[in-house]
């Protein structure tokens, strides 16, 4: 059974930094991609950043230049370095892991809370 675990969420002040970590286990195959998604209270969940197995990264416009995603393929871990945090970055951050083998599938973690106060 595939298990996705996030960590690193915390409460910080505006301008602060946090590093989130996502580790996946339980699959015989390496992830094709890993992504971070944010969900604010009462809002939809949307993608913040993603990275594929070739270490190609994509960012949403509102975090580009502030956040950096990386992948450690040997540890099946993706990290999200968040700098210059703003109150609007507040939310639950979820990790989503994508596989193409043995079949096309994805798995979500339980999320980690990030709170940025002004």
Written account of the structure:
0% of the residues lie in helices and 55% in strands. The chain is built from no helices and 11 strands. The chain is globular and about 45 Å long. It has strands at residues 3-7, 11-13, 18-25, 33-39, 45-52, 57-59, 67-72, 77-82, 91-99, 105-108, 112-117. The mean pLDDT is 96. It is mainly beta and 118 residues long. The strands form 2 sheets. Strands 2, 4, 5, 6, 9, 10 and 11 form a 7-stranded mixed β-sheet that branches. The chain has a 4-stranded antiparallel β-sheet with strand order 1-3-8-7, with no helix packed on it.
Task: Report the span from N to C terminus.
Answer: 41 Å
Strand content: over 45%
The H-and-E topology, N to C, reads as EEEEEEEEEEE
| Gross geometry | globular
Share of residues in helices: under 10%
Structural class: mainly beta
């Amino acid at each position: 059974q595939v298990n996705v675990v996030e960590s690193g969420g915390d409460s910080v002040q505006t301008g602060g930094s946090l590093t989130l970590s996502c580790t996946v286990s339980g699959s015989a195959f390496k992830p094709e991609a890993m992504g971070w998604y944010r969900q604010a209270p009462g809002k939809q969940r949307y993608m913040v950043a993603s990275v594929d197995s070739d270490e190609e990264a994509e960012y949403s416009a509102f975090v580009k230049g502030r956040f950096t995603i990386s992948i450690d393929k040997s540890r099946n871990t993706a990290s999200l370095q968040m700098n210059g945090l703003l109150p609007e970055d507040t939310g639950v951050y979820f990790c989503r892991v994508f596989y193409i083998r043995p079949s096309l599938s994805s798995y979500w973690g339980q999320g980690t809370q990030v709170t940025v106060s002004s």
